[in-house]
Specification:
single chain; alpha/beta; Rossmann fold; 7-stranded mixed β-sheet; 10 helices; ODC_Mu_crystall; lyase; Ornithine cyclodeaminase; NAD(P)-bd_dom_sf; ornithine cyclodeaminase activity
């Protein structure tokens, strides 16, 4: 290669060709969460770009650094669009681009299609939470929502637990039927399509709310959360009742500063009204993964994890992908300077 600064571009199909396993992705995310708990990271709260587009979507900008990766650590920035109506034109609702940088020189190392990264790191975070906060004998998963992250939530949780049943639903019948068919082709666990969130969550051990609401609507009812349940609400717009936290024995977030920032999030109202505060928050997940606080301690605890999406997870998976691509000589080298 001629002199100059070169970076590696990795397209979605090229990333898919690397064959990363779900276990590798979950382990990479868990390591980043542990680093966060141990103070081996730095990142800034996400910011939003709101174009004048009639409210059909916005962009999230995430920035983070992990000390342990590479010789000097690695820094990264991701821009992800959040456009709910994209399904109408055959596009994912979340399309993303990630960039990685050498933190000692500022030299760009890679540009990646981060669409899969965004979805997979979200499912992996749900699963890391479940490793530490859910009952090991959980048998029923209730999942509401069928967007890109849903596939990773369900398949990774199925890898973790010996489930008896997976219940799925979403607002559009054609969407939930397609999602269930795809899951059934991949997994051995029975997948049941239900018409409502109430049916999906009724008696479930693990309750995941990953909806795409435009206006707040209480789909995850507080009364549905039985003793011993693990609850993960992370829709952009709230789909839970205001008293949900009142029945929780432990409330865990990915990062408290991040939980307080921005205008979106499943528990936005709970933060704004003081129901979720430093006094009512049990821990950040990194504290639990790093062994600083216990996770689940009894079979009857109701535990909630709210993860808004840490940039650190995007950087961790993007770096994993880059190293695998370098070893396999996959991607296109682009002259930068």
């Amino acid at each position: 290669m001629t002199a100059g600064i070169w970076l590696r571009f990795l397209s979605g199909p090229e990333i898919d060709s690397l064959g990363l396993t779900r276990t590798e992705l979950v382990d990479s995310v868990e390591a980043a969460v542990r680093d966060h708990g141990e103070g081996q990271t730095s990142f800034e709260p996400r910011v939003h770009l709101m174009p004048d587009n009639g409210g059909i979507g916005h962009f999230n900008v995430l920035r983070g650094h992990l000390n342990r990766l590479g010789e000097h650590g690695v820094s990264g920035v991701k821009v992800v669009g959040d456009f709910v109506p994209n399904y109408q034109i055959g596009l994912p609702s979340e399309l993303a681009v990630a960039t990685l940088f050498d933190p000692t020189t500022g030299v760009p190392l890679a540009i990646l299609d981060a669409t899969m990264i965004t979805a997979a790191r979200t499912g992996a975070m749900t699963t890391v939470g479940a490793r530490h906060l859910a009952r090991r004998d959980s048998k029923i998963l209730g999942h509401v929502g069928s967007r890109g992250t849903a596939w990773w939530n369900v398949t990774m949780l199925d890898d973790l637990f010996d489930l008896d049943e997976i219940r799925v639903t979403s607002r559009r019948p054609e969407s939930r039927e397609k999602f269930a068919a795809e899951l059934s082709a991949e997994l051995n666990t029975p997948v049941r399509v239900v018409a409502t969130a109430a049916e999906a969550f009724d008696g479930a051990d693990v309750l995941v709310e990953a909806t795409r609401l435009v206006e707040p609507e209480p789909l995850l009812r507080t009364a549905a959360v039985k003793p011993g349940a693990f609850v993960v609400p992370y829709g952009t717009v709230s789909a839970v009742e205001l008293d949900l936290l009142d029945v929780m024995d432990k409330v865990v977030v990915d990062d408290w500063r991040e939980a307080q920032s921005g205008r979106f999030g499943a528990l936005r109202r709970h933060v704004d009204t003081g129901r979720l505060s430093p006094e009512t928050l049990y821990a950040e997940l990194g504290q639990i993964v790093a062994g600083q606080k216990p996770g689940r301690e009894t079979a009857t605890e109701r535990i909630l994890l709210w993860h808004r999406g840490l940039s650190l997870l995007d950087v961790a998976i993007a770096h994993l992908i880059l190293r695998r691509a370098e070893a396999a000589d996959v991607g296109t080298m682009l002259r930068f300077h």
